Amino acid sequence: MLLYSVVVLLFVANVINIGADLSAMADALKLLVGGPSSLYVLAFAMISVAAIVFLKYSRYVKILKWTTLSLFAYVAAMFAAKVPWIEAAKGLLIPHVEWNGTFFTTLLAILGTTISPYLFFWQASQEVEEEKQDPAAQPLKWAPWQASQAFQRIRAERWSEWRSPTLSRSPLSSRRPPRCTGQV
User: Fold this and answer.
1) What is the pLDDT along the chain (184 residues), one digit of tens a residue?
2) For residues 81 and 79, what is the distance between their CA atoms, to the nearest angstrom?
3) What share of the chain is helix, strand, coil (3-state, %, to 5)?
């Protein structure tokens, strides 16, 4: 019974998280071109499912890794704006807790995108897919001598894949947005 409860909770968490991701992408597109965000949610969902079904796994992973770089547009926008850097650094480095809904919504969004449940399952799935593609690779249970090299590779991949969204989001994470001069 406990196992079923955990599986249901993880399923619900994954569905909510994926839905939030699709909604965020749709809202971003709506800001750029206008139109109905619900239509964009469906389009992004269909594109994602089509890519998963019809692309080779290795190709899909490469596409996702390269599109992650687009998140650094936040960093570029921060440097293009006239930002009071001392105030921004204080907001980034000194935590400021406010007991209101906006603060906790932002905190939940940051934690949800950083330690998302489906990332852990994605990691395991990616390892299995990479093992299928490399005939010399074996499960570490049967080839423990490969463990050191495999763990180094996994650490490097996870750091770049999990931290790059966090680092690119850091301009948005200050305790309060610094006032811009309006000049870009």
Assistant:
1) 888 888 888 788 778 878 888 888 888 889 889 999 999 999 999 999 999 899 988 888 888 888 888 878 877 887 888 888 888 888 878 877 888 888 887 777 777 666 666 566 666 677 777 777 777 777 777 777 777 877 787 777 766 655 555 554 555 444 444 444 444 4
2) 5
3) 80, 0, 20
Tell me the residue type at 73: A
First-last CA distance in the chain = 58
Residue type, 178: P
Name the DSSP letter for residue 146: G
Tell me how far the alpha carbon of residue 31 is from its chain's centroid. Answer: 20
Q: Residue 55, SS3?
A: coil
The amino acid sitting at 80 is: A
Name the CA dihedral angle for 69, 54, 156, 17, rounded to a multiple of 10 degrees: 70
Exposed, middle or buried: residue 56 (CB in 10 Å: 0-12, 13-18, 19+)? exposed
Place of tokens 């749709």: 26
